[in-house]
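User: Please fill in residues for this 437-position structure.
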C-alpha cells in the first residue's frame, strides 16, 4: 500500500514514520527544500524520543521517502494525509490556508481515485471545504475523477508520540463512503491485531472529537489549578484533594495535577479555535472561556510567589529556572509557561540563568541572549537568589540538596510542578513553595 503524508512537522513526520514501520510505502511531502534535504540526510527537525532511529531505519529500507512535490507522487498513492499546520489566526480561529492549498494541489493533479484524509486539527466543516476546493479544481480541468475526503484526527502526546501511534487507545475516522472506510480499515489493520480500536463516525463528528477531547483535558487542568489556588487560601493540601477525588471512578486521576499552567501546540490553540467556532455559530462557550482565563492567570503564579518571597523587589536579583519546554520529553516551547515567566522576571529587573535538557536551543531562537543558559541544573543555580521549577524533567526529581544549599545564594525554591516534598525541603533549610499547599 502506498500513501503520501503532506507536512513533515510533528504530526506528519510521526505519522509517516510509524506507517512505514508497519511496511507501508510512505512518501512525506513538504514545500521546504532544506527540511526535505535534512531529512534525507538523517537530520530530524523535531525532538521526539525514538523517532530519529525509526526515520533512519525506514528511510534506509526504502519504505520512507521525502520529496517537495506532491504532484509527483499522486499517481502512485491510494491515500493522501494532509498534516500541514493550522496556526491560530489573529482572532483565535484556525488558519486553513495551508490545508486548502494542499486540497487545490490535489485537485489540479490527480488522475485516478484518491482518498484525502485531514490529519491536522481542523474546525468542524473543514473536510467539506477541502472537498469543495478539490472539486473546484477538477471542474476547472473539465474532468471527472472520483475522490473521497475523510477526517482522521491525531491524538499524539509529545514525548510519547510513537507509542501513542503504534499502540493507540483509539483511532477515530470520519468517512462518507464504504470505499473510504475500507481503505482506512486496511491502513490501520496492522495496529489493531490485539484489540480493535477503530471508531468510525461521520466526518463532522470526527472533526469535533479532537477539539472536544483536548478541551476536556484543558478543562481538568484549569479546574485543578483553580482548586489548588483555593487550597492555599483555606489551608488545604491539593495533593490530598487530588487523590481524594481521583479515586472516584466517575472522575479518575488523569490530568488532575495542578501546576503553573498548560502550554504546547494543542491545548491553547484548540481551546481558542473551539471558542471561535462556537462564536461563528452564535454560541457562547462560557466554560472554555473560563478555562482559558484560568490558564493565562496560572502562568503568572510563580512570578507572584517570587515577588512575595523577595518583598516585591527583583532588581539585580539572580533567578535560576529549571525547565523551559512546556512539558518533559520535548523541546516544544509553544505557549510554554516559561516564556511568560521569563518576560515577567526580566521586566522586574532580575537576571535569569536557565537550564533545560533539550529545549535550550529552542529557547535561544525565541529569547535570544536576553537570559543566560546553563550547562546543567547545578550551574543554573549557582549564586541564585531563588530557583524556579517550571518543567518536571526526570533529572530534576532527586537533586543533591547539599550541592544546591552550597551553590545558591539564598535557598528559596518555588516548585511549579509539585515534584518535591515540602516537609523534607523545609527541614533541610530551604524556603519552599509549591502549588496548592
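Assistant: Residues filled in for all 437 positions:
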Amino acid at each position: 500500500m502506498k500513501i503520501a503524508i503532506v507536512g513533515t512537522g510533528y504530526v506528519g513526520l510521526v505519522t509517516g514514520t510509524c506507517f512505514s514501520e508497519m511496511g507501508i510505502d510512505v512518501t512525506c511531502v513538504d514545500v521546504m527544500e532544506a527540511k526535505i534535504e535534512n531529512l534525507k540526510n538523517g537530520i530530524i527537525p523535531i525532538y521526539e524520543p525514538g523517532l530519529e532511529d525509526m526515520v533512519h531505519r525506514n528511510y534506509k529500507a526504502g519504505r520512507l521517502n521525502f520529496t517537495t512535490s506532491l504532484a509527483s507522487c499522486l499517481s502512485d498513492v491510494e491515500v493522501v494525509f494532509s498534516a500541514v499546520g493550522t496556526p491560530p489566526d489573529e482572532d483565535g480561529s484556525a488558519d486553513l490556508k495551508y490545508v486548502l492549498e494542499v486540497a487545490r494541489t490535489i485537485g489540479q493533479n490527480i488522475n485516478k481515485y484518491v482518498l484525502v484524509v485531514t490529519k491536522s486539527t481542523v474546525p468542524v466543516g473543514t473536510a467539506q471545504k477541502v472537498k469543495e476546493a478539490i472539486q473546484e479544481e477538477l471542474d476547472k480541468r473539465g474532468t471527472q475523477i472520483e475522490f473521497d475526503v475523510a477526517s482522521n484526527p491525531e491524538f499524539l502526546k509529545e514525548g510519547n508520540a510513537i507509542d501513542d501511534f503504534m499502540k493507540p487507545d483509539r483511532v477515530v475516522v470520519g468517512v462518507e463512503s464504504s470505499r473510504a472506510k475500507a481503505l482506512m480499515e486496511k491502513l490501520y489493520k496492522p495496529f489493531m491485531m490485539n484489540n480493535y480500536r477503530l471508531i468510525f463516525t461521520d466526518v463532522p463528528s470526527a472533526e469535533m472529537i479532537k477539539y472536544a477531547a483536548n478541551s476536556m483535558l484543558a478543562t481538568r487542568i484549569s479546574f485543578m489549578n483553580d482548586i489548588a489556588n483555593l487550597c492555599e487560601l483555606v489551608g488545604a493540601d491539593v495533593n490530598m484533594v487530588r487523590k481524594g477525588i481521583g479515586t472516584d471512578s466517575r472522575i479518575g486521576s488523569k490530568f488532575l495535577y495542578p501546576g503553573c499552567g498548560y502550554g504546547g501546540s494543542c491545548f491553547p490553540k484548540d481551546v481558542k479555535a473551539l471558542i471561535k467556532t462556537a462564536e461563528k455559530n452564535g454560541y457562547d462557550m462560557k466554560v472554555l472561556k473560563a478555562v482559558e482565563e484560568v490558564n493565562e492567570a496560572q502562568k503568572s503564579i510563580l512570578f507572584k510567589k517570587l515577588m512575595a518571597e523577595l518583598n516585591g523587589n527583583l532588581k539585580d536579583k539572580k533567578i535560576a529556572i529549571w525547565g523551559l519546554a512546556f512539558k518533559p520529553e520535548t523541546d516544544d516551547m509553544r505557549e510554554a509557561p516559561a516564556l511568560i515567566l521569563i518576560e515577567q522576571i526580566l521586566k522586574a529587573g532580575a537576571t535569569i540563568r536557565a537550564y533545560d535538557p533539550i529545549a535550550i536551543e529552542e529557547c535561544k531562537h525565541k529569547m535570544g541572549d536576553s537570559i543566560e543558559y546553563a550547562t546543567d541544573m547545578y550551574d543554573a543555580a549557582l549564586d541564585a537568589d531563588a530557583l524556579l521549577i517550571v518543567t518536571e524533567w526526570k533529572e530534576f526529581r532527586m537533586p543533591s540538596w547539599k550541592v544546591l544549599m552550597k551553590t545558591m545564594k539564598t535557598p528559596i525554591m518555588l516548585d511549579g510542578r509539585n515534584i518535591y516534598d515540602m516537609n523534607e525541603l523545609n527541614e533541610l533549610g530551604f524556603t519552599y513553595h509549591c502549588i496548592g499547599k
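For context: The CA atoms of residues 352 and 371 lie 5 Å apart.
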